[in-house]
Amino acid sequence: MDYQNFFKTALDDLRSQGNYRVFANLERHCGAFPNATARGMETADVTIWCSNDYLGMGQHPSVLAAMHEAIDRCGAGAGGTRNISGTTHDHVLLEAELADLHGKEDALLFTSGYVSNWAALGTLGSRIPDCVILSDALNHASMIEGIRHSRAERLVWKHNDLVDLEAKLAALPLERPKLIAFESVYSMDGDIAPIREICDLADKYNAMTYLDEVHAVGLYGPRGGGIAEREGLMDRITVIEGTLGKAFGVVGGYISASTELCDFVRSFASGFIFTTALPPAVAAGAAASIRHLKNSNAEREMHQAKVAEVREKLSAVGIPHADNPSHIIPVMVGDPHKCKFISDKLLEEFGIYIQPINYPTVPKGTERLRITPSPVHSANDIDRLVGALEDLWGQCQLARMPLAAQ
Ligand SMILES: *Cc1c(COP(=O)(O)O)cnc(C)c1O
């Protein structure tokens, strides 16, 4: 086989489909985020509009101070797996902070949210005898990979469809172990799961629940515990999974659950056992971020206000954006080439960075720009964004929302 030619052909195919991914080479400016410098192109100054650092916590003074302090106190890396000298006091404190955030007995840290889903679902699915996992059709790749890795039977239910979920549950023997895996805020459409009703079904059919709150922790609920906290449902969820890399602005992932379940995953998950622990400074920074957002609603309120402002201004000029109850604003383009074209032009001509979202992240024909406003975007940033989109919408001859319908 001509290996290099094989790689090249596969990449050429991706390019011709408009799905080849190009990473913007950015340098974020601490204290001035969402502003950044783009390297290797003409427009050097860019405003980032697609970050998952939803609240700007990645530059929060308390987070940075905690990280600096931890580096000065105990150095760069953890030095080992959690089992082999990699458990520091910062890890222990962070797990306590997370358990408290979700009102659970315990929490378990992983190196990322991806790894937490992969390892926890993989372990539960493979170790619980005859377990069947009922997985929402739009679950994140990390959950899908974890479930696949577990080799447990997987039943995919229609996205957010309680009727389909119940039909699948009802067809299984009541005594068979079951796990319902789903998300709260779905990150591409910004819609929210009917958590309460899913918990009711779980009770009725004797199933465990596994909720990915990655796009909600820090952002919703009086203390940033997520949608389940906002709706008073945290105690009804068996496992709450989250990330420290999005609204909390650092990196890492976790599950929060009962003492026994966390201890079980800690004891059996290869993706937990055989990898170096997060740097203590990361744990300290994440704990500072969580602590701050438990006590402050200002960031959450400002976040929602900016989201409303962007939606209003897009509607005023007829740029079509999906209506949803979350902070994610999908601007629908529906064509991978146009999506990439608009994204390129935004960056080159307007200094605005929004990554095109194409297949396989979203289904073909639903290509979009996913806008994530944050408390650190100014009114001027918003006006520049909407003006640029208006301009490019005309250039691409894309349809507008009927103004009368708004
Ligand atoms: C980003 C994401 C993850 C993975 O979290 P990381 O900390 O970035 O690895 C898991 N689930 C969902 C729904 C996500 O969007």
Automatic annotation (TrEMBL):
Coiled coil: none annotated. It holds the Pfam family Aminotran_1_2. InterPro entries: 4pyrrol_synth_NH2levulA_synth, Aminotrans_II_pyridoxalP_BS, Aminotransferase_I/II_large, AON_synthase_class-II, PyrdxlP-dep_Trfase, PyrdxlP-dep_Trfase_major, PyrdxlP-dep_Trfase_small. The keyword Acyltransferase applies. One of its GO terms (molecular function) is pyridoxal phosphate binding. Keywords: Acyltransferase, Heme biosynthesis, Pyridoxal phosphate, Transferase. PROSITE patterns: AA_TRANSFER_CLASS_2 (PS00599). Its EC number is 2.3.1.37. It catalyses: succinyl-CoA + glycine + H(+) = 5-aminolevulinate + CO2 + CoA. Its cofactor is pyridoxal 5'-phosphate. One of its GO terms (biological process) is protoporphyrinogen IX biosynthetic process. It comes from the Bacteria. It is an enzyme of class 2 (transferase). Pathway: Porphyrin-containing compound metabolism; protoporphyrin-IX biosynthesis; 5-aminolevulinate from glycine: step 1/1. Residues 45-389 form the Aminotransferase class I/classII large domain. Belongs to the class-II pyridoxal-phosphate-dependent aminotransferase family. Homodimer. PANTHER family: 2-AMINO-3-KETOBUTYRATE COENZYME A LIGASE, MITOCHONDRIAL, CLASS II AMINOTRANSFERASE/8-AMINO-7-OXONONANOATE SYNTHASE. This is 5-aminolevulinate synthase. It comes from Sulfitobacter undariae.
